[in-house]
């Protein structure tokens, strides 16, 4: 390290006297040893850039002028920061790299604003679950992945029973709190790669990648029991408490089918669960017949 200016001191919390003449600038940015972008250029290891940075680009065809962005731990600074880094090599008359200039920009506020906007675009404001837009995008992505990997894809459509009566009795504020508690209950039964979304109103949708119909039915029953155990009073319901009806469907995607068909099948199963008395699970049709409703 031959130059460490005042701006770098303020950014990292590390004075120049500690850095000049050293080779371990990484200590100012990361909790564990790893090369900086300048190190990668000097050591001719630029092929490792994609694995170490969130985003990157080459600023010219020679491949030595690079720009990258990533979160940095900043051990001596007040907080973790998102830094944009540009590097430019200095070469001698023979084309050999003699030094590298690394320029840092603090992009933390901009990155946090971007994350907040992305959350607004994909999260439901009331429940914190994925919203309809996120559900649609995720279902298409999971459908394509299931098609490539020849795996089943299951979908649950979950609807709160007699919710209008609950809203009438407890008001919209009480109705909102009810939906929030149900959202938490449904989300608590999910695996890391499952997605729970607020599909609309008092209806939720659950995407279960690589899950059979039998497995989907087990998840659905857990959700039904978890919601019933909340014991939210609803005099307009048969059980005198808030319950849900669930339609479960499973598909093995093929080039001739579309994700919309899975939604339609799960919706039909949900309708059957409602028609048969609510607070129950109904499964998808199979072959020429129909699986019996899974009742409680």
From TrEMBL:
Gene3D superfamilies for this protein: 3.30.70.270, PAS domain
InterPro entries for the chain: Diguanylate_Cyclase, GGDEF_dom, Nucleotide_cyclase, PAS, PAS-assoc_C, PAS-like_dom_sf, Rev_trsase/Diguanyl_cyclase
Xref: SUPFAM superfamilies: Nucleotide cyclase, PYP-like sensor domain (PAS domain)
Residue intervals of the GGDEF domain: 151-286
CDD domains in the cross-refs: GGDEF, PAS
Catalyzed reactions: 2 GTP = 3',3'-c-di-GMP + 2 diphosphate
Domain PAC: 62-119
UniProt-listed Enzyme Commission number(s): 2.7.7.65
EC supergroup of this enzyme: transferase
Name recorded for this polypeptide: diguanylate cyclase
């Amino acid at each position: 390290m031959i130059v460490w200016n005042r701006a770098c001191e303020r950014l990292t919390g590390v004075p120049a006297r500690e850095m000049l003449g050293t080779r371990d600038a990484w200590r100012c940015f990361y909790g564990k040893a790893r090369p900086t972008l300048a190190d990668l250029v000097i050591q001719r290891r630029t092929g490792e850039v994609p694995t170490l940075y969130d985003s990157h680009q080459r600023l010219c065809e020679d491949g030595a002028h690079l720009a990258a962005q990533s979160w940095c731990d900043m051990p001596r600074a007040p907080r973790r920061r998102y830094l944009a880094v540009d590097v430019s090599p200095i070469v001698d008359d023979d084309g050999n790299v003699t030094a590298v200039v690394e320029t840092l920009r603090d992009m933390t506020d901009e990155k946090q604003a971007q994350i907040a906007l992305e959350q607004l675009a994909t999260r439901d404001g009331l429940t914190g679950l994925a919203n309809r837009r996120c559900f649609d995008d995720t279902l298409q992505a999971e459908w394509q992945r299931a098609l490539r990997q020849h795996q089943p894809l299951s979908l649950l459509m979950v609807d709160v029973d007699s919710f209008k009566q609950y809203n009438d009795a407890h008001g919209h504020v009480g109705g909102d709190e009810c939906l929030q508690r149900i959202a938490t209950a449904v989300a608590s039964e999910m695996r890391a790669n499952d997605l729970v979304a607020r599909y609309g109103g008092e209806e939720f949708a659950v995407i279960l990648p690589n899950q059979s119909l039998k497995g989907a039915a087990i998840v659905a029953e857990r959700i039904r029991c978890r919601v019933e155990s909340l014991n939210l009073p609803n005099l307009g319901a048969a059980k005198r408490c808030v319950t849900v009806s669930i339609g479960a469907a499973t598909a093995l995607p093929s080039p001739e089918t579309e994700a919309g068909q899975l939604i339609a099948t799960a919706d039909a199963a949900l309708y059957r669960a409602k028609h048969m008395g609510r607070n129950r699970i109904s499964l998808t049709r199979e072959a020429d017949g129909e699986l019996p409703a899974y009742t409680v």
